[in-house]
Amino acid sequence: EIFLVDPDTQEVFYLDEAGTALWRLIEAPQSFDEFLAVYSAAFPDIDPGRIETDLKESLDKLLEPGLVVVF
Fold first, then answer.
1. Phi, psi of 13, deg, nearest 5
2. CB of 18 within 8 A of CB of 35?
3. Tens-of-pLDDT digits for all 71 residues of the chain?
4. Dihedral (Cα; 49, 32, 26, 11), 10-degree rounding
């Protein structure tokens, strides 16, 4: 589990197990398709469409407050 703090607002963001895995995965620049491939391999029993939707939602939660940026 990871807690992130926005330095401007002091707002605290909690990342659960899946969010923590995503945070560690995005340390190295990768495309969305690469993230999707990693998660699909890690969770082969989960519908790929659900993985894609969940992954987009999780990334949006990090992008909205500016916790991550896209180059």
1. -120, 125
2. no
3. 899 998 889 999 999 888 888 889 888 888 999 989 999 999 999 999 999 999 999 899 888 888 888 77
4. -70
